[in-house]
Amino acid sequence: MCGILAVFNMRKAAELTVIGLHSQQHRAIDYAGIVSSDGTFLYKECGPGTVRKVFTSEMLDRLHGKHALGHTRYPTLDDDPNRINIQPLRGYWRDMPIALAHNGNLTNTDELARICPHRKTSLDTEFILRILETRQEQRIEDALAETLRMLKGSFSLALLLPEMLIAARDPHGNRPLSVGVSEDIGFLVSSETCALSVLGAQSVYDVPPAAMVLIDRSGMRQISYTKIASPLKKCSFEGIYFVHPSSDVYGVQATTFRLALGRALEEHCPCPSANIVTEVPASGTLHAMGYATTGRSGMYMPVIFRNNYVGRTFIASSQSLRDEEVDAKFNFTKSLIVGKRIVVVDDSIVRGTTIRKIVSKLRELGALEVHVRVACPPVTHHCNYGIYTKGKDGRLIAQEMNVEEIREHIGADSIAFLPLGVLKEIWPDAENSCFSCMTGVYW
User: Fold this and answer.
1) For the chain, which end, N or C, has fewer CB atoms within 10 Å of the first or last residue's CB respectively?
2) What is the pTM for the complete model shown?
3) Predicted confidence band at 353 (pLDDT cuts at 50, 70, 90)?
4) Residues comprising the binding site?
5) Boundaries of each Glutamine amidotransferase type-2 domain copy (predicted)?
6) 253-439, what's its fold?
C-alpha cells in the first residue's frame, strides 16, 4: 500500500506535500520521496523511513517551485532496500522531465517486461514510466492514455510535468484517489481525503475510474482514457482497515462504516459473559465502540494503549521484525484487566502475530477470560492489487488454520469473525467491490 500527495500552483508546495504525506503515514512507512517543479526543472529528495525522518529543512530548501508530487511506500514485492526504488520516479517524455507516483499493483508485469526488458528498478511503476517515455503523441494526455490502456490490475497514479499535473485511476477504481481545490485556486491530489482536509481543500471529488484529471494554469479538466467498460472492484479493505477514520473512501465515511461493522459484529457474534469490550488499538477502536453500543456484550473500556509511532505490524518486512514491533507497540492498564472477562475487537486478522501476543498479555495481567471478535471475514488469500502479504516469511493464518485452530493458536476462550454476507450488506455498492482477500476470487 502507498500514499500519494500532489500540490499544484501553491506556495511552499514541498512543505505542503510533507504535511499531506504525514497525514497519510498510516498507508506506508518504509520509504518517502518528493519531486518538485519550478516550471522548468524537476527536483527530487527521498529516503528510507517515515516522512518526518526523511525530510529535513535542508532537503525542503532544495525542492523549489509551486508544484510537487510526493509518495510514501511499502513494498508490494520482496524488495532490495535501494534508494533507486523510491518513488516518485523521474524520466523524460519528448525531452520534457516528468515524475510518476503510483499506488496499486499491476498484474500483467510479465507481458510488460517483454516490452520494457531494461529497467533500473524492481518497481512495476517503472513499466508505466518507460512505456510512456516511448510514446510519440503530440499531447501528453494522449500518450498517457495509450500507456494506461496497456495496463492490467490496480493503479491510482499522479504524473507531474513542469507545468502540469495529471491524476488517473484504473478502470476498476480499485484504489482511491481524490482531487481538492484550495481557496487560492491551487490544486491537490491525494490517496485519501483526510490529507485534503488537513491542507484546507475547499471542494473535493474522486477521480473517476478509467479517467484522467488534467490540471494546469488554466484550471482542471477530466477525460476518459478508455471506452471499454470494466467491472468496478473497489477495495473493501480500504474501508475496513486502511484509510484514516476521518477519510471518505468511495463515498463512504470510514468512521461511520467501522462503527456499523462493530454493531453488526455484536449482533451476529455476541459475548454475553463479558464485562469489558476493548480494542486492538488504534485500528480496532471504532469497531470496538460499535460492538459495545448495546452493552449486551460488555462495556467499552480501553485497556490497551498504542505506542506511536511503531507502525502497522502486518506490513512489517519480516516475521522477526513483526514480533519485535508487537512487543514494543502496546501498554496495558493492569488494574482494569484483573478479574475481568474481556472481549478484544480487532478490525481484521492477517497473520495473527498481534492478537496472539495481546491475548497472552491479558491473561498474564489477570484477565479471567479473553474472547476475540473480528470485524472482517477471515483473510484467506493474498492480495494481488497492492497490499503486501507475500513476503518471504509471509503467512495468512486463516489460510493455514480453521477458526477453531486459530482460537487455539492465539489462546483465546472464543473467536468469531464477521460473516462475509453481513459485510456485503453494510459495505455500500458491494456488487462493485473487491473481496478477493476473503474469497480468492480475482479479477
Assistant:
1) C
2) 0.93
3) very high
4) 235, 283, 346-347, 383, 434, 437
5) 2-218
6) Rossmann fold (3.40.50)
